[in-house]
From TrEMBL:
One Pfam family matching this protein: FCD
Protein name: GntR family transcriptional regulator
HTH gntR-type domain sequence ranges: 12-79
InterPro entries according to UniProt: GntR_C, TF_FadR/GntR_C, Tscrpt_reg_HTH_GntR, WH-like_DNA-bd_sf, WH_DNA-bd_sf
Tree of life domain: Bacteria
Recorded GO MF terms: DNA binding; DNA-binding transcription factor activity
KW DNA-binding (keyword) present: yes
Keyword entries, A-Z: DNA-binding, Transcription, Transcription regulation
Native source organism of the sequence: Undibacterium fentianense
Transmembrane segments: none
Length: 220
């Protein structure tokens, strides 16, 4: 596994930096489902200490990204497609709340940023740039969450988003970036316009696409 360069903004805790670095490796399948978690390797890859690393791994265990198995220790949790359908059911409820809250509460600058992220997703899809698409997707999540000003909903939805993102990387051959970008753009447009109903409908459209995509994977 290649060494990972980790930036360390002054305001970020070491455990948060470790979490972000390992999460990225899990989501992008550098750490594959079923792979063992080897602390010494992660310390070498991230350049971070054992204490923040262990704190990050505890958070990942509570989020369901890694699991503890008898006599095997910590491993990356498998991707279970059937379970993913119920995950989307749960995410749908929270995403509607976050979208409508963001449409109601976003500042003018955040509305511009949200719309810009949607445009970047569309451009990346048109250019077939998966990494740029996923980066814009993550940026959109961050700014929408900030705009919603609902930390409880954000805390609840983040583990679900992470699992959805990993699912996309694992089964991207079944996905449609153009349709996904269109759905995200509808969501972004609704929030940018301050239209709570349109924003909530945009969230629904996105969850409809994710559910359809998941069922396509399940049915082979």
């Amino acid at each position: 596994m290649q060494s990972l360069k980790v930036t360390t903004p002054a305001k970020m805790r070491a455990a948060d930096i470790a979490y972000d670095a390992i999460e990225s490796m899990i989501v992008t399948l550098q750490l594959k489902p079923g792979a063992p978690i080897v602390e010494s390797e992660l310390i070498e890859i991230t350049g971070l200490g054992r204490t923040p690393l262990r704190e990050a791994l505890m958070r990942m265990s509570s989020n369901g990204l890694i699991v503890q198995l008898p006599r095997r220790g910590l491993i990356v949790k498998d991707i279970e497609a059937a379970e993913h359908v119920t995950l989307i059911e749960t995410r749908r409820v929270i995403e509607r709340l976050i979208a409508s809250s963001a449409a109601r509460r976003a500042s003018p600058q955040l509305r511009q940023d949200i719309f810009s992220c949607g445009e970047k997703m569309v451009a990346a899809a048109n250019n077939g740039q998966l990494d740029e698409f996923m980066a814009a997707d993550q940026a959109l999540d961050h700014v929408v969450h900030e705009a919603s000003r609902n930390p409880s909903a954000v805390t609840a939805v983040i583990p679900l988003i992470i699992k959805c993102r990993r699912f996309w990387y694992a089964y991207q051959h079944e996905g449609d970036m153009h349709e996904a970008a269109r759905c995200h753009m509808l969501l972004a447009q609704g929030i940018a316009d301050g239209n709570e109903e349109a924003a909530a409908n945009g969230a629904d459209n996105l969850m409809n696409y994710l559910e359809s995509y998941t069922r396509k994977v399940i049915n082979g």
